[in-house]
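Workshop exercise sheet. Pairs work together: one partner reads the sequence aloud, the other fills in the structure field after running the prediction. Swap roles for the next sheet.
Pair: D.N. / O.F.
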Amino acid sequence: MTDSTKAFLILANGQVFEGTGCGAAGCVTGEAVFTTGMNGYLETLTDPSYYGQLVVQTFPLIGNYGIISKDFESADIHVSGYIVRSCCEIPSNFRCEYDLDTFLASRNIIGLCGIDTRALTKVLRETGVMNGMIVSGDSEEAKNIRKALKNPAEKEKLLKKIKSYRIKNAVESVTCNASKIEENAETVFKESAEYRFVPVRADGTKVNDPDTAMKDGKGKKAVLWDFGAKANIRRELLKRGLDVAVVPASSSAKEILALKPDGIMLSNGPGDPKENIRIIEELRKIAKSGIPIFGICLGHQLLALAMGADTVKLKYGHRGANQPVKQLSTGRVYISSQNHGYAVKNSSVPKDAVLSFVNTNDGTCEGIVYTKIPAFSVQFHPEACSGPLDTGFLFDDFVRLINNHGYFAHFKAEFERIDSIRSFAKAVKGTKRTGAGLKK
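Structure field:
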């Protein structure tokens, strides 16, 4: 990276943020979003859920521990562009392989640094997520765009083009990418134990012994329906003894059921959940099979849609490793990692289901337990080491549900005592943020 590489971001509202380029040179359009994580940039870059987006890191220094391929969530970078305040050129970490700038350039990802990312974040918070274009380098296209910005009529044409950008074929573009870096169960547990990322029970105790951790899942098979899965979802299933068969997003209910799974895992993924019409229809068929289901993020939304709920787009979404969620059955608050721009509408949760978690910032739905089928789902990422391992116990709940389809029945009475989401609204009265769930 050199300081002479001029680059800038132009938002769909016409605002321009000038800085310097990092990674590859060129021009790229995407949906500008921000994430508040202080670390985890490797997981962010390789998370398929960020497909088609220009990701803004609010933390000012990114790249300080370099590139560590073992921490990738998939084989490729999926962001369209990357925006940081400062890109560390001399990383320091005993696991570091090379620097961030080299990584971005090697994957042809256009980056922008040297801008006030917090000022940009304020724009996205106030106006909501919007499209933008990063322009870096001195190509003919870049020169033409710079000229267009000086001409009101040409600038208006450029902004119209930026506004028209839409993320298309998101799930189909990223499915099974994480499968390219799969490891066997023995390797997964050995490496996890080395860095103490072993299973953690609901009481907070760690399970360092593989035999103990895998005991309940041994001999059971889970199908991971991959809509853009993060690699750590599979690892968490393997740590608990389950055999995991990964299937692409295009799989039919018939094909999945033919594998005779004991449980079905619905993965995270990118894009508008409502666009996945065929997947939702196939999921309805699977729900009728009686096989236990656990959904995460996009999987949570797709299951809700299949069961009759509705989803809405949030103003600027939840992205970061510090999102608080409240478990309604216990009243306990957990710190979670999240990456989503859509949410299940609270009032649309079907009668045969109950809210299990809500976001304490805006009251939006963060989890659902279904009472007529053995299924549950969460909007956040229990595999993402936030808290650092606060909600990993949900994978244990999945194993218990596989072994006992009525596992969640004992929660039903507690859930039913919660009159409605309005009772929770009183607990967060005065919040300035509004979302799909609560309004002041």
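Discussion prompt: Residues 152-163 form the longest helix (12 residues). What would you look at next?
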